[in-house]
């Protein structure tokens, strides 16, 4: 009986040892996976920033605004653009900081906390961009309506026909804003959604280890 008890104790020690090694290996894999996901988020953010910079450089906005003769509004839009780029740079820095934190984490609880922090940062980033898209579209429609001479006939028709034509114009504008924003929402949902699901899956696996 004493020998059997000794064998059981030895087996339990071995089982505990195997469990610890297994959990340690799982943590390493999750850690590496989470670090790679956050690095990819940062890279995508940088490419997205460069893409919009390129669009801004090669577009003919200056020619369009000169045609409308709205210097004060142009100044406002330029300040808005610079402020927007500054915010995007801040988000990219936040992505980089999250990447560094996750890459250097050696604790399950801290890694879980950093994963949740990264998910919140990405969600705020996505909603900020969608909000800016809606805001810029509204500003663009307003500038076109009030200052673009090509829409003079439409303005006269709206003023002549009254509320009904105005409602049709506003409704059409809202539909275009919704459609345009939905395209970007689907883009962000597809691009960042996949990465967010991977991070959340890693978080759930870490919860099992931490129990």
UniProtKB/TrEMBL annotation:
GO terms for biological process: respiratory electron transport chain. GO terms for cellular component: membrane. Keywords: Membrane, Transmembrane, Transmembrane helix. This is Uncharacterized protein. The chain crosses the membrane at residues 37-59, 79-101, 122-147, 167-188. InterPro entries: Di-haem_cyt_TM.
């Amino acid at each position: 009986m004493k020998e059997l008890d000794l064998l059981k104790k030895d087996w339990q020690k071995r089982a505990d040892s195997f469990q610890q090694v297994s959990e340690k290996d799982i943590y390493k894999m999750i850690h590496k996976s989470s670090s790679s996901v956050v690095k990819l988020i940062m890279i995508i953010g940088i490419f997205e920033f460069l893409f919009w910079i390129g669009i801004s450089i090669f577009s003919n906005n200056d020619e369009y605004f000169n045609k409308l003769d709205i210097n004060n509004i142009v100044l406002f839009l330029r300040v808005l653009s610079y402020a927007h780029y500054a915010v995007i740079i801040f988000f990219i820095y936040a992505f980089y900081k999250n990447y560094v934190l996750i890459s250097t984490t050696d604790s399950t609880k801290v890694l879980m906390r950093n994963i949740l922090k990264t998910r919140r940062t990405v969600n705020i980033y996505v909603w900020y961009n969608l909000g800016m898209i809606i805001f810029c579209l509204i500003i663009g429609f307003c500038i076109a309506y009030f200052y673009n001479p090509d829409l003079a006939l439409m303005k006269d028709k709206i003023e002549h026909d009254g509320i009904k034509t105005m409602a049709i114009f506003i409704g059409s504008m809202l539909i275009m804003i919704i459609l345009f924003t939905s395209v970007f929402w689907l883009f962000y949902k597809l691009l960042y959604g996949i990465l967010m699901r991977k991070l959340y899956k890693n978080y759930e696996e870490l919860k099992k280890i931490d129990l």
